[in-house]
């Protein structure tokens, strides 16, 4: 779950497993790759 920036086109990537995304299984990974244009600040993520 992201904090600190707008998610106009990436809302699908902000939520708990089985709600907006499939869970990431043990030993696997998922890369979040998106732009944060025209925003400055501290952006942080935590799982749900």
Automatic annotation (TrEMBL):
Transmembrane segments: none annotated. Belongs to the multicopper oxidase family. It is found in: Secreted. It is an enzyme of class 1 (oxidoreductase). This is laccase. Residues 1-48 form the Plastocyanin-like domain. The lineage of its organism: Eukaryota, Fungi, Dikarya, Basidiomycota, Agaricomycotina. Its cofactor is Cu cation. It comes from the Eukaryota.
């Amino acid at each position: 779950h992201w904090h600190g920036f707008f998610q106009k086109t990436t809302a699908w990537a902000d939520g708990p497993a089985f709600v907006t995304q499939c869970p990431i299984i043990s030993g696997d990974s998922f890369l979040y790759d998106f732009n944060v244009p025209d925003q400055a600040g501290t952006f942080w993520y935590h799982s749900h």
